[in-house]
Amino acid sequence: MTENTVKYSENGFWIKKEADKYIVGLSEKGQDDLGEVSFIDLPETGAIKTTDTLIGVEAAKAMTDLASPLAGTVTAVNEALENNPENLNSTDAAMNWIVELTDVSTEDFVALQNESGL
């Protein structure tokens, strides 16, 4: 597997592997499922499981909690989303990333989808 590989979760996230970090953002499928995002509830840094809510969003089509696509440790959060939740609808990964994870199982990452499901 090459570095900087991007995978997708069934519930609408893209996950990009960069060395030992995993960057998580909202995929085109997630954007399409939700519609225009108007509010986001961001996670705290620290341990997270796949049964835990990664983000809570209020959007045009749905108000929902999205579970984390991977278990690991949240080491960074895109705080800019708090005041600019519409950035989640951007196609620019530099704007629509949500968290950075470490301590992720490589097997769990490899098991994710290779395409966004759109």
TrEMBL record:
<dbReference type="InterPro" id="IPR011053">
    <property type="entry name" value="Single_hybrid_motif"/>
</dbReference>
<dbReference type="GO" id="GO:0005960">
    <property type="term" value="C:glycine cleavage complex"/>
</dbReference>
<dbReference type="GO" id="GO:0005829">
    <property type="term" value="C:cytosol"/>
</dbReference>
<protein>
    <submittedName>
        <fullName>Glycine cleavage system H protein</fullName>
    </submittedName>
</protein>
<dbReference type="InterPro" id="IPR033753">
    <property type="entry name" value="GCV_H/Fam206"/>
</dbReference>
<dbReference type="Pfam" id="PF01597">
    <property type="entry name" value="GCV_H"/>
</dbReference>
<dbReference type="InterPro" id="IPR002930">
    <property type="entry name" value="GCV_H"/>
</dbReference>
<dbReference type="GO" id="GO:0019464">
    <property type="term" value="P:glycine decarboxylation via glycine cleavage system"/>
</dbReference>
<keyword id="KW-0450">Lipoyl</keyword>
<dbReference type="GO" id="GO:0009249">
    <property type="term" value="P:protein lipoylation"/>
</dbReference>
